[in-house]
From TrEMBL:
<protein>
    <recommendedName>
        <fullName>Addiction module component</fullName>
    </recommendedName>
</protein>
Length: 75
């Protein structure tokens, strides 16, 4: 917990010393981070992601290693 307090103080010091451009970038970063991107996503994309998860859970698809091997063999 003490580590978090130290980090918080360091960040506050950085904010106090930051120029306008840096402050605007930090604000934008924090704003994006606070948005729930899942709720912002179109329903079509959500359903495609959910279908992909179901396929992966049922064993369909390839592992990263299998996909890389397949690509290397294709070329």
């Amino acid at each position: 917990m003490e580590e978090i307090a130290t980090l918080r103080e360091e960040v506050k010091s950085m904010i106090d010393a930051a120029d306008e451009k840096t402050l605007r970038m930090m604000h934008a970063m924090l704003e994006v981070d606070s948005a729930d991107w899942w709720n912002e996503m179109p329903e079509e994309i959500k359903s495609e992601i959910q279908e992909s998860i179901k396929q992966a859970d049922s064993g369909e698809g390839l592992t990263h290693e299998e996909a890389m091997k397949k690509i290397k063999n294709a070329f």
